[in-house]
From TrEMBL, chain A:
GO function terms (MF aspect): ATP binding
PROSITE patterns assigned to the protein according to its UniProt record, in alphabetical order: ABC_TRANSPORTER_1 (PS00211), ABC_TRANSPORTER_2 (PS50893)
InterPro entries assigned to the protein according to its UniProt record, in alphabetical order: AAA+_ATPase (IPR003593), ABC_Ni/Peptide_Import (IPR050388), ABC_transporter-like_ATP-bd (IPR003439), ABC_transporter-like_CS (IPR017871), Oligopep_ABC_C (IPR013563), P-loop_NTPase (IPR027417)
Localisation: Cell membrane
Keywords assigned: ATP-binding, Cell membrane, Membrane, Nucleotide-binding, Transport
Statement: the UniProt record of this protein carries the keyword Cell membrane: yes
Protein name per the record: ABC transporter ATP-binding protein
Native species: Drancourtella massiliensis
Recorded topology in the membrane: Peripheral membrane protein
Assigned protein family: Belongs to the ABC transporter superfamily.
Domain ABC transporter: 5-257
One Pfam family linked to the record: ABC_tran
From TrEMBL, chain C:
UniProt key word Transport: yes
ABC transporter domain residues: 11-256
Gene3D superfamilies in alphabetical order: P-loop containing nucleotide triphosphate hydrolases
GO molecular function: ATP binding
Name of the protein: ATP-binding cassette domain-containing protein
Family as reported in the entry's similarity comment: Belongs to the ABC transporter superfamily.
UniProt entry tagged with the keyword Methyltransferase: no
A Pfam family matched in the record: ABC_tran
From TrEMBL, chain D:
Keyword Cell inner membrane on entry: no
Alphabetized InterPro entries for the sequence: BPD_transp_1_N, MetI-like, MetI-like_sf
Superkingdom as given in the UniProt entry: Bacteria
Name of the protein: ABC transporter permease
Keywords, alphabetical: Cell membrane, Membrane, Transmembrane, Transmembrane helix, Transport
Pfam families: BPD_transp_1, BPD_transp_1_N
Entry's transmembrane regions: 12-30, 99-122, 134-159, 179-201, 236-262, 282-308
Gene3D superfamilies the UniProt entry points to: MetI-like
Biological source species: Drancourtella massiliensis
Record localization: Cell membrane
The keyword Repeat belongs to this UniProt entry's keyword annotation: no
UniProtKB/TrEMBL annotation, chain E:
Annotated source species: Drancourtella massiliensis
Claim: Membrane is one of the keywords in the record: yes
InterPro entries hit by this protein: BP-dependent_transpt_permease, MetI-like, MetI-like_sf, OppC_N
Subcellular location(s) per record: Cell membrane
Family: Belongs to the binding-protein-dependent transport system permease family.
Topological category with respect to the lipid bilayer: Multi-pass membrane protein
Any Pfam family: OppC_N
Occurrences of domain ABC transmembrane type-1 (ranges): 103-292
Primary localisation category: membrane
Protein name in the entry: ABC transporter permease
Residues spanning the membrane: 43-63, 105-130, 142-161, 167-185, 216-236, 273-292
Annotated SUPFAM superfamilies: MetI-like
Length: 341, 511, 335, 322, 305
C-alpha cells in the first residue's frame, strides 16, 4: 500500500460561547509514502486544525466530527483512545510548530525534551543509547556541537537552532509522517532557506512523508509534491505542485499566486483580494470565497460548488468550471481543463 | 481536675483538653508577665505574683492582717511607725526576711522613680528610716499622714536584698526575676517558666503553714472569649464573670461554684477641669450632667445585676471605715438637668469622653451615659483607650503628658484601699488642679487624712463626702463586686479578704 | 549624476549610530555608521534580517529614538537638534506606519478619534465640521467609508487596521512617510492591498518614503533605491533594478537566492546560496567585516578590517573587501 | 549571579534602613511617650530632666535615631520601658514559638495548595475545580480572627476536642501536645495564604496547560499525567516561590492577630502588649524584625527563583556580562 | 442530477454589485464586552446582586423602625423573632438595624480608602512610569519600602497612637495600600507608553499631558478597576481586623468589625451576635474579590482577529 494517510471528510467545530466555529468543513486529501503535501491558505482557514486533528490534539471545545475519517495505514484514528493516541503521536507521526521558542518547555533542557520522545516510545533503550540517538538526530538536523546542545535550555539557542531542535525532537523516533505547521514563518529568509533545505535533505535520508503547512506558496514551490489550497475550512483546490502553479483553476489560487510580488518579475501591479475571510461561526451558504471573488456569479452565493476533477488528482471547487459559467475575463492558464467534467 | 464532660471518643484530643495534674490550681492570665519582679503595676500582675511574694501586712476594713510583719505600732502623733517582722519569715532559699530587705525594696522604688517615691517622701519631705535590729524598723514621717499605712501595706512587696548584694542598681536587667532560682517569700516557689505558662510549687518551709494546693499554674489564655472557653473546657480553675448572662449561666449550673466578693472599688465619672470645653462645664453645666444621669439604670444596663455592681452614693466605698452609708449621692432629675444645660450653654455641645477599654463593663457604662446625656442635648464623642493611653490622658497632669485638654469627661475606677485611711479618695480630693475640687475641700481632705483619731476622722470624712459631691466634679457610679466562678472541685476562694489577689493561699483547696 | 543634483535631498543620513545600553559598560550596536540620502518623491527600501537594526535605523532617522552618533538632516535641518517648536512642525511633516496593526491603534479609541487626533494637535481644521470632513476624506482615501468612523478598532481586521494607521499618518499631510514593515503582520491575501494603497498614495501625495521590509520582493516592487543591512551596518546600497540584477555583496547574493519564488520550475532549478549558521549577536559583533563568519568568500583581511562603503559602480555602493581592487585608489588611501 | 546577589543585599539593607527610619519617625511623632512612666508629679524639674537624659530623650530626633541605629546594628534594641530588661533576649525567646507557628502554617498552605491547585487547574471547570475554587474564595474572604472564634466554639466549647489556647498543656511537653495546640491557630493562619496559593497555582496551571510546549509534549505522545508532572509542574511552581516571599507579609501580620486570639506565646502577642503599653523599644524591635523577615523572605525567594529558573539566571548572568 | 436542475434555474450571471459590508455587523465597545462577560458569569452575577442588595439595604437603613443607638434594657438579648429579625444585642438594640448601620461604616471605610488608595496609587504609578529615569527610581524605592513594611503592624501602632475613629481608619488603611496600586499602574504605564500607538501619538506631536490622559489612563483603567475592587475587599477585611482589636470607630457607632468585637463576650451564650456581622463581612469581601477576578479576566487582552 502506497498511501500512508487518508483524510476523508474531516470536519472540526469549536463550540465557543459566540457559537459554533466550523473550523474545518469536510477536508479530504491523501498523503503517499515519502511524499510532501503542502497545505496552503491564509490565516484562520483551518490548516492548523487539520494538522492537529491528525495528531489527536483537538481539545475542548473543539470536536472532530464522528463521520470524519483519518486513516493512517488503513486504521481510523478518529476512534482512537487516549492511550492509542499516545502511542501514535511521536512514534508514527511527529509534529513541529511555528514558533519553536514557545513550543519548547522553557525550563527543561533541550536534551531531556528530545529524549522524552524516546522515553515514550522506546523505553527499552538504555540512557546512553537514548542520548546517542539524540546526538545523532541533532547532527542530522545540522547542529554541529550536538552534545553541548543537549545540555542547553531553549532560550540559549538562536531561532534557527531551536527549529532544528524541534525537527530533531520530532524525528528522533523515525516517524513515518512529519507534520510541519508553518515551520519557517517566524524565521528570516536566509534561515528559512536553511530549514527548508534541511527538511528536503532529511526526507531523502529518512524516507518519511511530510505535511507542510504554510500560507506562502513560494515556500513550498520547490519542496511540495502535492498542494492543497484551503479557504475558510474547505479545500478549494488541490493538485500536484506543477498543476497548482501552472494550471491553477480557482480564483483564490490565482490571487494567492499573483498577490505577492515576485522577485524575478518586474513592475506588475499586484492582484489584490479585497475583503477578508468570512466569519466561521456563520459560514456563507454558497461558495465561501464568493464575496471576495471578482468573478462571482449569482449561483456562487446560493450553492456550494461541487468538485471538478481535472485529472491527475487535480480537483477544483468552483462554479467557473461549469460550462454555463460566465467566463468573461477569467484568466485561465489553459482552456483545456476547463469544464472537463 | 478537668471538665465534667467525659469525651472518651478521641484519645489524644481529650487528654490534652483536660486541666493539668490533679490538685493543681490553674489561673488564667491574659498576658505573659515580662518578669516576676514583685514591683507592682496592675491588679492582674499583683495577683500573679501574690502566691510567691507576701506583703508586710494588709489593711482591711476588719483591721490589719499580718504577713511578713507581725506587728505595726503607730505613735499617737501619727509620726512614728514601728514595724516588727515575723521571726520565722524567710526566703525560699533559706535566708531570713530582714529589715534590710524592706529598705532595699524602698531604695529600689526610689531609684526607679528617679529619687522620690511614695515610701520615702511625703508632700515633698523625706521620710526617716531607722533599722532598730534585723527584724525591727522604725519609720519617722515628716507630718501625720494616714494613707501611709496603705502605702506600706497592700502593694509593697519585699525583694530579697541578699540576691543583689544589697545594691538596688543591680536589679534591673539582672534576669533574676525571670528564673526559677529566685528566692520567694510567699507560700510558693517558681518551678517552671514556660512560653505560655508559669508553674508555682508549694513551699514546705513557709512560715505561715503548708498550703493545700501543691501546684499553681498561671496560664495565658489569649484574648476575648477564649478564657471563657478555656474555663468551660476545664482548662482553668476559675475566672471572673462580668456579664449577667454569664453569671446566670454559671450560677444556675451545679457544675460550678460562684463567689461574689466586694472589690472595694469605686467607679466614677470625672469632669475634667482642664478640658477643651471647660468654659461650658461650669457649676451649672456639671450639675446638669450629673442630674441627667441615672445610676441605677447604668448598673442595670452595663452590669445587669446587683450582684456584679451596685450604684455608688459616695466617693468612699463601703469597705472604708469612714464611709457614710447614708450619703445622699445624686438623684436623676432630667427636667432640671435640661434647664441647667440650657442655661449653662452646655446643650448642643459635644464633649469628649474617655474610658479604659481594658476594664470590664466600662464600654457599656459609656454607652449608657452617652444615651442619658443625649436626653439633655449633650453629645458625647467616646473614645475607648487601652490602659496606657487612657492613663496618660486621664492623669495628664500627674504624668506631665500634656494631654490634659484632650478630654472632658472620663470614667475611671480606683481601689479604695479599704480600711482606716481615706486612701485613694484623699489623694484625689487633695488635688484641685487635676480634679477641680475647691480649696476648702482640699484643706478638709488634708485635715481628714492627717487625723489619727478615729472619731474625728469619721466626722471630717462624713463632711467631706457631702461637700465633695456638692461641687459636681466626680460622680460616684458603682461599687463593683468581683464575681468569680470556679470549677466545682475548687473551694476557699472567698476566704480571702482582698480580691483578686487571693490573699490567703492557705485556704484554697482543689479536690 | 546631473539627475541627482537636480533632485532635492529630503532626508540625509550621515554616519548614523544608535547604541542601546544593555548593561553597565555594554552596548548593543543596533545601527552602526549608516549613511544614505533619500531625495524628494523617492522611495527607499531597507532590507535585512530580523534584528539587523532596520526599525532602529528608521526610528532614529525620524527622531523617535535619540541617536548615539552621526547626523540626520530633514530638508537641511538637523532632526536631533531641533527646538521644541521645530520638532512640533517636524512631526507634521514626518509620519510613521507601524508593523503591527494590532498594537499601533489605541484599543480604547474610536476610529474617528484616532484619525482626528493629528488634526486636533496641529489645528488643521477650523471647526468640528471641517475636521469631520477631513476625517471622512481620509477614510475614503485609504479605502474605508465614513461609516467606519464611529466604530471601535477591535472590530476591524488587520488589513483594515493598517489602513486606519495609514489614514492617521496622512491626517497631518506629511511629506515623508516611514513604513516599518507595514505588511509583514498581514495575511498574504491582504498584503497586496496595502502595498497597492501605499504606492497609490505616494504617487497622489508626492510622498517621500522610507520602506522597511524583510521581504525582498515587496521592497523591490515598491522602492526606487534599496539598502541592505546586516548586523547594524549597511552593506549594499543601490537602485533597486541594479541590486537585483547585479548584487555585489555576498550577503545580498545569498539573501536574493534565499527568497522563495512561487514557481517550482525556476525555484528548483536556481542555484541557491544557503548561508551557514545564524546572525551573530549585535552585542559582540565579529571583528572586521561583520559578515565574515558566514561568508563563503571570506579572506584574511575580512576578519581584521572593517570594509568601508564605497561606490563600486555608478550609484551602486557596497562595503566588501572583494571589491577593493576595483577601487585601488581609495583602498590604498585607506590603508 | 553573585553580583546580582550582592546588589540585592545592598538594596535590602537600604530598605531595612528606611523601614527603621520610617518606624522611628512614626513613633517619635506619636503623642505620649515613655517618660511618663518614670516621671511623677512629685519630681522636681531637675529630676525630670535627669530622667529624660537618662532615657536619651533630651536629644533631637536624628540624634536619637542614630543612637538607636548604632545599637540596633549590634543587635541591641535597647531596654524595654515596661520591665526594664533588654529587648533583644525577650524578643528572641519568643521568636521560636512564632516561627514554629508561621513556618507550619506556611508549610501547610504550600503542601495543601500545590496538589489542590494543580488538581483544580487540571480539571478546570469540573465539579472538583468548582469546589476547590469556591473554598479558596471563601478562604480569602473570611476574616481570620472570626474563623478562629468559630473554630474555638465548635472544637473546644462544643466538641471539647481541641484545647482553646496556648502552646502546651502545662507539664506536658510532648510534640504531640504542641501539635494538638497548633491545629487551630495553624488552620486559621494558613487559610488566607492557602486560598491565595491555590488560586494562583490553579490559574498558573491553566495558563501553562494552554502553552504551546504542552502541545509539543502531547505530539510526542506524552501522557496527561506526565505532562502535568514533568512539564507543567515546574513552570507552575517556579513563580510560587516569589509569591510565597511576597505573602510572608500576610503571615507576619496574620500571626499578630491569630496569636492573640489563641494566646500563642509568640512575638505577636508580645508586641500587641507592647503596643498597649507604648513600649516603644519593643515596638521598634518588632517592626524591624517583621520588616527583616519580610525583606529576607523576599530576598530568598528572589534568589531561589533566579537560581531555579534557567531563563532568569541566564538573563542575570548575561546582564552582568558573563 | 437533482443538483443540476436547481442550477439551471439559477443564473450564471455575474454578481453586479458586491456587498461592501466588510466589518462584522456587531457593534459594541470594550466596556459593553466587559459588561457582557461579567453578566454571563454566575459568580460575578451573584456578587453584583449581593452587593447591590447590601448597598441598597445599608442606604435604606434609616427606614428601619428601630434606632440603632437607643438603649432599651427591657429588650436586652432578645432572640430572633418577627419583631427583631436578628434579635437584639446586650443593650436591647435591634441587631439587624445595627448591622445595617455597621455596614454603612464598613462600606464607607472600604470605599473611601479604596478611592484614596487608587487615586494616590494611580497618580504616583502613572507619573513614575511615564517620567521614568531618576524620578521613577526614587518613587519606586519609596513604594518598595511601603510594600516591605509590616503594614498591619504599623496600622495597629498608628491607629493606637492617633486618635481612633473613622478618619484615622481611612487614613491609615490608605497609607499602607497605595503602594500596591502604584506598582501595578507603574508597570502598566511602562508597558503602555512603549506601545506603538503611544509612539504614534507622540509622533503626531502630542504633548505628555494629552498622551497621559487620552491614551495611558484609559488603557490602564482595567487593572485599576480590578485593583479597586480587590482594594475594597481588602480594606473591609483590614477594617474588621482593626476594629476587632478595638482600634476602629468609636461607640455608639459600630462597624461590622467592631460588632464582632463586642460579640466576643457573648460568643458562647449568643453566637448569633457574632454570626451576622461575620457572614456579612465574608459575603461582601467575597463579592468584591469575585468581582475583581471576573473583571481581571474580562480585561485581559483578547486576541481579536
Ligand atoms: N481553540 C479554539 N477555539 C475556538 N476556535 C478555534 C480554536 N482553534 C482554532 N479555532 C478557529 O478555527 C479556525 C481555523 O483555525 P486554524 O488555527 O486552523 O487556522 P490556520 O489556518 O492554522 O491559521 P494560521 O495561519 O493563523 O495559523 C479559525 O477560525 C479559528 O478561529
Ligand atoms: N529598546 C531596545 N533596547 C535594547 N535593544 C534593542 C532595543 N530595541 C531593539 N534592540 C535591539 O537592537 C537590534 C536591532 O533591532 P531592530 O528592532 O532595529 O531590528 P529590525 O531590523 O527592525 O528587526 P525586525 O525585522 O525583527 O523588526 C536588535 O538586536 C534588538 O534586539
Ligand atoms: Mg495555524
Ligand atoms: Mg523591526
Amino acid at each position: 500500500m502506497k498511501t500512508l494517510l487518508q483524510v476523508k471528510e474531516l470536519a472540526v467545530s469549536y463550540f465557543t460561547y459566540a457559537g459554533e466555529v466550523q473550523a474545518v468543513r469536510g477536508v479530504s486529501f491523501d498523503v503517499e509514502k515519502n511524499q510532501t503535501v503542502a497545505i496552503v491558505g491564509e490565516s484562520g482557514c483551518g490548516k492548523t486544525v487539520t494538522a492537529k486533528s491528525i495528531m489527536g490534539l483537538i481539545k475542548k471545545p473543539g470536536i472532530v466530527d464522528e463521520n470524519s475519517q483519518i486513516l493512517f495505514q488503513g486504521e481510523n484514528l478518529v476512534r482512537y483512545t487516549k492511550k492509542q493516541w499516545n502511542n501514535f503521536c511521536g512514534k508514527e507521526c511527529g509534529m513541529i510548530f511555528q514558533d519553536a521558542l514557545v513550543s519548547l518547555n522553557p525550563t527543561m533542557k533541550v536534551g531531556k525534551q528530545i529524549i522524552e520522545n524516546l522515553d515514550n516510545h522506546e523505553p527499552s533503550l538504555s540512557k546512553e543509547e537514548k542520548k546517542a540517538r539524540a546526538v545523532e538526530i541533532l547532527k542530522l538536523a545540522g547542529i554541529a556541537d550536538a552534545e553541548q546542545c543537549l545540555e542547553k535550555y531553549p532560550h540559549e539557542l538562536s531561532g534557527g537552532m531551536r527549529q532544528r531542535v524541534m525537527i530533531g525532537m520530532a524525528l528522533v523516533t523515525n516517524p513515518k509522517l512529519l507534520i510541519a505547521d508553518e515551520p519557517t514563518t517566524a524565521l528570516d529568509v536566509t534561515i528559512q532557506a536553511q530549514i527548508m533545505e534541511l527538511l528536503k535533505d532529511l526526507q531523502n535520508k529518512l524516507h518519511m512523508s511530510i505535511i507542510l503547512i504554510t500560507h506562502d506558496l513560494g515556500v513550498v514551490a520547490d519542496i511540495a509534491d502535492f498542494i492543497v489550497v484551503m479557504y475558510a475550512g474547505k479545500i478549494v483546490e488541490r493538485g500536484s505542485c506543477r498543476e497548482i502553479f501552472y494550471h491553477a483553476s480557482h480564483p483564490y489560487t490565482w490571487a494567492l499566486l499573483k498577490s505577492v510580488p515576485r522577485i524575478d518579475y518586474n513592475g506588475q501591479t499586484l492582484v489584490t483580494i479585497e475583503g477578508s475571510i468570512p466569519d466561521m461561526t456563520n459560514p456563507p451558504k454558497g461558495c465561501a470565497f464568493c464575496k471576495r471573488c471578482p468573478y462571482a456569479m449569482h449561483i456562487c452565493k446560493e450553492h456550494e460548488p461541487s468538485k471538478w476533477d481535472l485529472g491527475d488528482g487535480h480537483e477544483v471547487s468552483c462554479w467557473l468550471m461549469d460550462e454555463r459559467a460566465d467566463r468573461e475575463g477569467v484568466p485561465f492558464e489553459t482552456g483545456r481543463r476547463v469544464g472537463n467534467e | 481536675g478537668g471538665s465534667s464532660d467525659s469525651d472518651g471518643g478521641s484519645g489524644g484530643g481529650s487528654a490534652s483538653t483536660e486541666s493539668t495534674e490533679a490538685g493543681a490550681f490553674t489561673m488564667a492570665i491574659s498576658y505573659m508577665p515580662d518578669s516576676l519582679q514583685p514591683d507592682t503595676a496592675s491588679d492582674d500582675y499583683t495577683s500573679m505574683v501574690r502566691p510567691i511574694y507576701d506583703p508586710l501586712f494588709l489593711d482591711t476594713k476588719d483591721g490589719i492582717v499580718y504577713y511578713l510583719a507581725d506587728s505595726l505600732e503607730i505613735s499617737d502623733d501619727g509620726l512614728t511607725y514601728k514595724i516588727h517582722l515575723n521571726e520565722n519569715a524567710n526566703w525560699s532559699d533559706g535566708e531570713p526576711v530582714t529589715v534590710q530587705d524592706i529598705l532595699f525594696s524602698f531604695d529600689y522604688a526610689g531609684l526607679s522613680s528617679g529619687g522620690s517615691s511614695s515610701y520615702n517622701t511625703i508632700n515633698g519631705q523625706p521620710v526617716q528610716f531607722n533599722a532598730v535590729d534585723d527584724k525591727t524598723l522604725e519609720i519617722t514621717l515628716p507630718e501625720p499622714y494616714a494613707t501611709y499605712v496603705t502605702t506600706l501595706s497592700n502593694r509593697v512587696l519585699i525583694m530579697p536584698s541578699h540576691a543583689f548584694d544589697n545594691d538596688p542598681t543591680k536589679v534591673d536587667d539582672s534576669g533574676y526575676f525571670n528564673s526559677t532560682d529566685m528566692a520567694t517569700s510567699g507560700a510558693y516557689t517558681v518551678s517552671e517558666i514556660n512560653d505560655d505558662s508559669i508553674v508555682y510549687k508549694a513551699r514546705d518551709d513557709y512560715y505561715r503553714g503548708n498550703p493545700e494546693v501543691e501546684t499553681i499554674v498561671l496560664r495565658n489564655t489569649g484574648s476575648g472569649s477564649s478564657r471563657q472557653v478555656a474555663f468551660e473546657n476545664g482548662e482553668i480553675s476559675y475566672m471572673r464573670v462580668t456579664t449577667k448572662e454569664e453569671l446566670d449561666k454559671y450560677s444556675n449550673s451545679d457544675e460550678y461554684n460562684t463567689y461574689s466578693i466586694t472589690e472595694s472599688r469605686l467607679n466614677y465619672l470625672q469632669v475634667n477641669p482642664n478640658g477643651p470645653n471647660k468654659s461650658v462645664l461650669t457649676d451649672e453645666g456639671r450639675q446638669a450632667i450629673f442630674l441627667a444621669l441615672n445610676g441605677q439604670e447604668i448598673v442595670d444596663a452595663a452590669y445587669g445585676s446587683d450582684e456584679l455592681a451596685t450604684p455608688a452614693n459616695s466617693l468612699l466605698t463601703p469597705d472604708q471605715v469612714d464611709y457614710n452609708p447614708d450619703c445622699a449621692g445624686y438623684t436623676q432629675d432630667v427636667e432640671k438637668a435640661k434647664e441647667l444645660a440650657e442655661s449653662s450653654g452646655l446643650s448642643g455641645t459635644t464633649l469628649t469622653y474617655i474610658y479604659n477599654a481594658d476594664r470590664a463593663n466600662m464600654e457599656a457604662v459609656a454607652t449608657v451615659i452617652q444615651q442619658q446625656l443625649a436626653e439633655i442635648g449633650v453629645n458625647l464623642s467616646i473614645e475607648g483607650l487601652d490602659s496606657t493611653s487612657f492613663f496618660q490622658r486621664f492623669f495628664a497632669l500627674t504624668y506631665g503628658s500634656g494631654q490634659e485638654n484632650t478630654w472632658d469627661l472620663g470614667t475611671n475606677g480606683w481601689d479604695s484601699e479599704r480600711g482606716t485611711s481615706g486612701g485613694q479618695a484623699a489623694s484625689y480630693l487633695k488635688n484641685s488642679e487635676a480634679w477641680g475640687f475647691s480649696q476648702e475641700t482640699v484643706d478638709l481632705a488634708i485635715q481628714a487624712n492627717a487625723t489619727t483619731d478615729a472619731e474625728q476622722s469619721k466626722t471630717l470624712w462624713y463632711q467631706l463626702q457631702d461637700q465633695a459631691l456638692g461641687e459636681y466634679w466626680e460622680y460616684p457610679l458603682t461599687y463593683t463586686n468581683y464575681v468569680m466562678v470556679s470549677q466545682k472541685n475548687v473551694t476557699g476562694l472567698d476566704a480571702s479578704p482582698i480580691v483578686p489577689e487571693f490573699a490567703d493561699w492557705l485556704s484554697i483547696k482543689v479536690e | 549624476m546631473s539627475d541627482t543634483i537636480r533632485k532635492q535631498a529630503e532626508l540625509e543620513v550621515k554616519n548614523l549610530k544608535k547604541y542601546y545600553k544593555i548593561a553597565k559598560g555594554k552596548s548593543l550596536k543596533a545601527v552602526d555608521d549608516v549613511s544614505f540620502t533619500i531625495y524628494q518623491g523617492e522611495t527607499m527600501g531597507i532590507v535585512g534580517e530580523s534584528g539587523c537594526g532596520k526599525t532602529t535605523c528608521g526610528k532614529t532617522c525620524i527622531g523617535i529614538l535619540p541617536k548615539s552618533g552621526g547626523e540626520v538632516y530633514f530638508r537641511g535641518k538637523d532632526v536631533h537638534a531641533m527646538s521644541r517648536k521645530e520638532k512640533f512642525i517636524f512631526t507634521k511633516d514626518v509620519q510613521m506606519i507601524f508593523q503591527d496593526p494590532y498594537a499601533s491603534l489605541d484599543p480604547h479609541q474610536k476610529v474617528y478619534d484616532i484619525i482626528a487626533e493629528g488634526i486636533q494637535i496641529h489645528k488643521l481644521a477650523k471647526d468640528k465640521n471641517e475636521e469631520q470632513k477631513r476625517v471622512f476624506e481620509l477614510l475614503e482615501m485609504v479605502g474605508l467609508t465614513a461609516e467606519h468612523a464611529s466604530r471601535n478598532v477591535h472590530e476591524f481586521s488587520g488589513g483594515q487596521r493598517q489602513r486606519i494607521g495609514i489614514a492617521r499618518a496622512l491626517s497631518v499631510n506629511p511629506k515623508f512617510l516611514f513604513c516599518d514593515e507595514p505588511i509583514s503582520a498581514l495575511d498574504v491575501s491582504i498584503q497586496a492591498q496595502i502595498v497597492n494603497l501605499l504606492m497609490k498614495l505616494q504617487k497622489e501625495q508626492g510622498l517621500t518614503m522610507l520602506f522597511i521590509a524583510h521581504d525582498l520582493s515587496v521592497v523591490k516592487h515598491i522602492s526606487d533605491k534599496i539598502g541592505v543591512m546586516y548586523l547594524g551596518k549597511m552593506v549594499e546600497l543601490s537602485d533597486s533594478s541594479q541590486l537585483y540584477s547585479n548584487p555585489l555583496h555576498p550577503y545580498t547574493k545569498a539573501l536574493l537566492t534565499a527568497v522563495p519564488i512561487a514557481d517550482p520550475d525556476i525555484s528548483r532549478k536556481r542555484q541557491r546560496i544557503i548561508l551557514e549558521g545564524d546572525v551573530p549577536s549585535p552585542v559582540n559583533p565579529p571583528a572586521g567585516c561583520r559578515f565574515s563568519g558566514r561568508c563563503k568568500n571570506c579572506m584574511e583581511i575580512c576578519k581584521k578590517e572593517e570594509p568601508k562603503m564605497r561606490e563600486v559602480a555608478e550609484g551602486h555602493w557596497t562595503a566588501c573587501h572583494l571589491y577593493d581592487s576595483k577601487n585601488e585608489e581609495v583602498y590604498q588611501h585607506e590603508v | 549571579m553573585w553580583k546580582y546577589c550582592l546588589k540585592k543585599i545592598v538594596e535590602l539593607a537600604v530598605v531595612l534602613l528606611l523601614i527603621s527610619f520610617f518606624s522611628f519617625a512614626v513613633i517619635y511623632i506619636a503623642p505620649g511617650d515613655v517618660s511618663s512612666m518614670y516621671i511623677s508629679q512629685e519630681m522636681t524639674e531637675e529630676q525630670k530632666a535627669a530622667v529624660l537624659e537618662h532615657l536619651g530623650m533630651d536629644k533631637s530626633m536624628p540624634e536619637q535615631y542614630l543612637g538607636w541605629l548604632k545599637q540596633a546594628i549590634h543587635g541591641d534594641f535597647g531596654i524595654s520601658l515596661a520591665n526594664r530588661t533588654s529587648v533583644t533576649p525577650q524578643i528572641l525567646s519568643r521568636l521560636p514559638a512564632t516561627l514554629l507557628l508561621m513556618g507550619t502554617a506556611l508549610l501547610l498552605s504550600i503542601v495543601l495548595a500545590i496538589p489542590l491547585g494543580l488538581w483544580s487547574g487540571y480539571k478546570k471547570n469540573s465539579l472538583v475545580d468548582n469546589a476547590i475554587s469556591s473554598l479558596s474564595y471563601i478562604g480569602m474572604s473570611i476574616p481570620s480572627f472570626w474563623l478562629g472564634m468559630l473554630l474555638v466554639i465548635v472544637f473546644t466549647a462544643k466538641l471539647h476536642l481541641l484545647p482553646s489556647s496556648g502552646m502546651n498543656t502545662v507539664g506536658v511537653n510532648t510534640p504531640w501536645d504542641t501539635f494538638i495546640h497548633m491545629i487551630m491557630p495553624c488552620i486559621t493562619l494558613s487559610l488566607g495564604n492557602l486560598a491565595t496559593f491555590i488560586r494562583y497555582i490553579r490559574s498558573s496551571t491553566i495558563g501553562e496547560l494552554g502553552e504551546e510546549y504542552v502541545l509539543t509534549a502531547q505530539a510526542k505522545g506524552t501522557s496527561g499525567a506526565k505532562i502535568l508532572f514533568r512539564h507543567v509542574l515546574k513552570n507552575t511552581l517556579l513563580p510560587i516561590i516569589t509569591l510565597i516571599g511576597m505573602n510572608l507579609a500576610t503571615l507576619v501580620c496574620g500571626s499578630f492577630i491569630i496569636e492573640s486570639v489563641f494566646g500563642w506565646p509568640g512575638i505577636g502577642t508580645f508586641a500587641m502588649e507592647a503596643i498597649g503599653k507604648r513600649d516603644y523599644p519593643i515596638i521598634m524591635a518588632y517592626v524591624m524584625l517583621s520588616g527583616f523577615i519580610l525583606v529576607i523572605g523576599n530576598f530568598i525567594a528572589d534568589m531561589l527563583y533566579a537560581f531555579a529558573d534557567p531563563r532568569i539566571k541566564r538573563g542575570i548572568d548575561s546582564a552582568n556580562g558573563r | 442530477m437533482e443538483d443540476k436542475k436547481i442550477i439551471t434555474e439559477i443564473s450564471f450571471q455575474r454578481l453586479e454589485e458586491k456587498e461592501t459590508e466588510q466589518v462584522a455587523d456587531y457593534r459594541h465597545s470594550i466596556w459593553k464586552d466587559i459588561r457582557k462577560e461579567v453578566l454571563s458569569n454566575k459568580a460575578a452575577l451573584f456578587s453584583i446582586i449581593f452587593l447591590t442588595v447590601i448597598i441598597i439595604a445599608v442606604l435604606l437603613a434609616p427606614l428601619s423602625p428601630y434606632d440603632p443607638y437607643e438603649i432599651d434594657i427591657s429588650q436586652k438579648m432578645q432572640g430572633m423573632s418577627a419583631k427583631h429579625i436578628f434579635g437584639t444585642d446586650d443593650y436591647g438594640r435591634d441587631y439587624l438595624t445595627r448591622a445595617l448601620y455597621g455596614g454603612r461604616v464598613s462600606l464607607l471605610v472600604g470605599f473611601c480608602s479604596m478611592f484614596i488608595t487608587v487615586i494616590i496609587g494611580t497618580l504616583i504609578g502613572v507619573f513614575s512610569g511615564y517620567i521614568g529615569g531618576k524620578v521613577d527610581m526614587i518613587l519606586m524605592r519609596f513604594t518598595d519600602i511601603f510594600l516591605a513594611l509590616p503594614s498591619m503592624l504599623l496600622m495597629i501602632v498608628l491607629n493606637a497612637i492617633l486618635q481612633p475613629g473613622l478618619v484615622t481608619l481611612i487614613f491609615v488603611l490608605s497609607l499602607f495600600s497605595w503602594a500596591q496600586v502604584a506598582r501595578i499602574t507603574r508597570a502598566e504605564t511602562m508597558s503602555v507608553k512603549e506601545r506603538d500607538y503611544v509612539i504614534a501619538t507622540k509622533n503626531l506631536g502630542a504633548g505628555s499631558f494629552r498622551i497621559a490622559v487620552k491614551h495611558i489612563i484609559p488603557n490602564i483603567l482595567g487593572p485599576v478597576v480590578v485593583a479597586a475592587s480587590l482594594g475594597v475587599a481588602n480594606a473591609i477585611l483590614m477594617e474588621s481586623s482593626l476594629s476587632f482589636l478595638g482600634l476602629g470607630v468609636q461607640i455608639p457607632v459600630a462597624s461590622w468589625g467592631s460588632m464582632l468585637q463586642s460579640a466576643q463576650t457573648h460568643i458562647l451564650d449568643t453566637p448569633r451576635l457574632a454570626i451576622l456581622p461575620g457572614v456579612l463581612i465574608m459575603l461582601t469581601v467575597l463579592s468584591f474579590n469575585l468581582l475583581g477576578d471576573v473583571l481581571r479576566t474580562a480585561f485581559e487582552p483578547k486576541i481579536v482577529k
